């Protein structure tokens, strides 16, 4: 069996950087993207890889139950043909700025919840349940410090729906962690983690905020840090920063 990482939301930014570093480290990757025809950087990365077969690219629109199911089926087929899903990273996310509680539309709030909360959880639960004898070691959700309820960032004007969607993600993934532990069997060894990637200079961060963002980092530094954290931390249902500091829920 060949150990494989699944990265969902891999067309650009942090997700693309996960794929880049994993391929550089000699890993096998199944990369999920919203649209195969709008993932040029990922296709180029695969072509430039010394062994392109180590990267499988599949469609996964995280806002579509049908698309998630087809993606899960494809991952299942890959497992049947000899790959083992070792780690899963649910990275896809959106931030439509601003998304204030006093101004948000029904549809924009729903889009934040579908993309940042419901889709990642449904995708993870389908992948986790694929093979009872060989569930993944780590299920990692890319959350945000904005989703912490104990460190409430009331200065983040325009982040209402985004932070609510990440707070809901955090709560649901903690239930996933507890349920897998209770379920027993091999699932009790699956470790569910939430991660804050830092303030990362990606398209998502390319917005004109009304405050100064301190300590911005590049995607390569963020992902290198997160890969170390994913390897080292094994406390299921825990929340970590990219640099290894524990994050309060
Ligand atoms: N950047 C930061 O400072 C920061 C801070 C805290 C947390 N985060 C979190 O980190 C994660 C990655 O963010 P980023 O900074 O890399 O943002 P980004 O550059 O905007 O990339 C977002 C990624 O999510 C994908 N995505 C969005 N909607 C999707 C859908 N419906 N189905 C599948 N994929 C979808 C995008 O695909 P398309 O190319 O198809 O749009 C893209 O690959 C997000 O969950 C974000 O909330 C980022």
Concise overview:
GO terms for molecular function: oxidoreductase activity, acting on the CH-OH group of donors, NAD or NADP as acceptor. The chain is α/β, with parallel strands linked by helices and 249 residues long. Helices cover 39% and strands 16% of the residues.
Level-1 CATH class name? Alpha Beta
- Low-confidence segments, given as residue ranges, are none
| Name given to the CATH homologous superfamily | NAD(P)-binding Rossmann-like Domain
Give the total of beta strands. Answer: 7
Order of helices and strands: EHEHEHEHEHEHE
Count of discrete alpha- or pi-helical segments spanning 4 or more residues: 6
How would you sum up the major sheet?
7 strands, parallel
What is the overall pLDDT average?
96
Structural class call reads: alpha/beta
Written description of the protein model:
The chain is α/β, with parallel strands linked by helices and 249 residues long. The protein has a single domain, classed as Rossmann fold (3-Layer(aba) Sandwich), CATH 3.40.50.720. Helices cover 39% and strands 16% of the residues. It is built from 6 helices and 7 strands; from the N terminus they run E-H-E-H-E-H-E-H-E-H-E-H-E. The chain has helices at 13-24, 40-48, 65-80, 106-128, 160-183, 219-232; strands spanning 2-8, 28-33, 55-59, 83-90, 138-142, 191-196, 238-241. Strands 3-2-1-4-5-6-7 form a 7-stranded parallel beta sheet, sandwiched between helices. It is globular and about 50 Å long. The N and C termini lie far apart (36 Å). Bound molecules: NADP nicotinamide-adenine-dinucleotide phosphate. One of its GO terms (molecular function) is oxidoreductase activity, acting on the CH-OH group of donors, NAD or NADP as acceptor.
